[in-house]
Amino acid sequence: MSTLIVAVASMIGFIVAYNTYGRWLARRLFQLSPEAVVPSHELRDDVDFVPTRRSVIFGHHFTSIAGTGPIVGPALAVFWGWLPALLWVVLGSILIGGVHDMAALVISLRNKGQTIGEVAGRLITPRAKVLFLAVLALALSVVLAVFGLVIAIIFAIYPESVLSVWIAMPVAIGIGIWVYKKGGGLLGPSVFGLVVLYGAVYFGAYYMPISLPENSNGFFTPVVVWTLILLAYAFAASVLPVWLLLQPRDYINSHQLYVALALLVIGLGVASVTGHADLMASAPAIAKAENVPADAPPILPFLFITIACGACSGFHCLVSSGTTSKQINCETDAQAVGYGAMLLEGALAVLVILACCAGVGMGRVERTEVNGVGEYTNVLAADGTVVTGNAAWKMYYRATKADGSPGGWADHKLPQKLAAFIDGGANFLATIGLPLKLAVAIMAVLVASFAATTLDTATRLQRYVLQELGESVHIKPMTNKFIATGIAVAVAAVIALGVGDKPGTGGMVLWPLFGATNQLLAGLALMVAVFYLARRSKPFAFVAIPMFIMLVMPAWAMTYDLVYNWIPQQKWTLILFGFGILGLQAWMVLEGILMWQRCRGVLEAPIASTTSSASESAAAS
Predict the structure, then answer these.
(1) Omega before 301 cis (within 30°)?
(2) Coil, strand, or helix at residue 607?
(3) Is 376 helix (H, G, I), strand (E, B) or coil?
């Protein structure tokens, strides 16, 4: 029952936080008003600025911010034990991540839908704007590379997931045209889309797994080819009108993901009540030193950058201020979309922790080829019984190599940790009667679909950032959306395929860079929020304390990696990114310190040639 108790206590904590702290942030600190004129109405163009009902924009926002971040991060971090990971996820999402997301969304809503980097130019200094945009561009380059690789790895390992992910594209386009051009309702298309997507999951698992030919010795391995295909798709999704593909795809994906998460919760409950899932017997609450690789990074500060999405993530400020703020229909929706979606992501991260501990403790899942068709079974011990408990958990998380020889942190590959969540979740689903093969397919599609929604949203966000950066530094070609998108995709491809021992193997190498860059970005976004509140003479300690944490922890972690890992190993891509991001962060913080005394209580200049929103005027008075 320990697994169920942890799950229920965490969910109750999220619900209470939303209705207390979240409500206080919305009503008292940010004073959200239903009368405010929001960018989706004021600047409506039906391409980027599109008024959207709350259920739809919530689906877009949640699936965009979630991605594989709240899956990969916790799946890696439970190596140090499930308790530290759980505490950081629950407390971080309530007190830091939710505040960060909601602040970025509200500030963008009150600044004509501008990104948080653009707003920094008026809240702090014009140089801060350029510095922030540069950090955003670097961070998004890593995000695109990491998520492109993650989806490609899922496709290569679990060919059953491919069909359902790709079939969502034409279904989404059809729904977009039906709703926005034909004036149709959403209920029918929603049910139709859900049936098609889950039909594709079943068909992909049993009849049409899609795999690419192996080419392990050449450049074009399956992971490389899938990465290139995915980035080409991301280019197209970024330049199309938001209503045609991005928004309806995220909407129907959100329903598919909600069903998968509901099945996961039910499976977890059944497995717990029946005694099949035992958190305490499967994984350590706090791992002993001998059970962690000798060269593993220290839990402090690396826990706080390994788990980014699910607790606090700088990428969320890009979604909040990049696409979501341009689609919010009413300012008061910001509590549900900004704060609520972050708590739901925290709930997902809790499920991941439990799946990677209690779930994998139910048995290691093994894939075998039978007449060219993938089959899934639990690994058996010599006596014919299923290997369970801590023995099964150690098959995914061990301090030594499989043959018992001394292992290092680098021996624990990203695909293995993704498999821990997929296999553990599949074990939960199997307890409610689903065949293990179908359960694995559902979980693999869950991961790939989350990542795909983040990939296309991140590409659009990078396009916005590069266009704003081009305008700020007067490089006119970069202001063109096709050129900006092309640069975004090309840089991501170079990073994804140029890091690691061979093309397509850099996922584990890139993840520490992603985590540190992501969290530094969160710290800078919270810094902008502090200036926003200080200029209005509002209390800012609720934002300043999270800002301090999110500036110090990732800078500490990145410095550690530079000194002890990247420089000694001459990993030049990581070294250049590390020094570049740390330098930009230090410069922006210095800009803030120098400006601090002159800005408190002094409103920033309004955006040229526009009028302030009703809520902004109220907040200023």
Answers:
(1) yes
(2) coil
(3) strand
State whether the Cα torsion 399-404-406-410 is positive or negative. negative
Contact 36, 615 (CB under 8 A): yes
64-73, 302-311, 375-384, 569-578: range with highest mean pLDDT: 302-311
- Residues of 326-365 as b/e, b for ≥16 C-beta within 10 angstroms? bbbbbbbbbbbbbbbbbbbbbbbbbbbbbbbbbbbbbbbb
Residue type, 444: A
Q: Is the pLDDT score of 500 beyond 80?
A: no
pLDDT at 610 over 60: no
CA distance 119 to 344: 27
CA angle 293, 299, 305 (to 5 degrees): 115
Contact 151, 232 (CB under 8 A): no
**Tens-place pLDDT, residues 37-65:** 999 999 998 878 999 989 889 988 998 88
d(CA 328, CA 89) in angstroms, rounded, equals 27
Burial class (CB in 10 A: 0-12, 13-18, 19+), 403: exposed
- At position 291, the amino acid (one-letter code) is N
Contact 379, 393 (CB under 8 A): no
Separation of alpha carbons 465 and 227, rounded Å? 22
Name the residue with tokens 């942890």: 6
CA neighbor of 157 nearest in space, from 230, 211, 215, 229: 211
Task: List the beta bridge partners of residue 386.
Answer: 380
- As a whole number of angstroms, the distance between CA 452 and CA 102 comes to 23
CB 429 within 8 A of CB 42: no
614 Cα distance to chain centroid: 33
- Rounded Cα gap, residues 508 and 306, in angstroms: 11
> First-to-last CA distance in the chain?
53
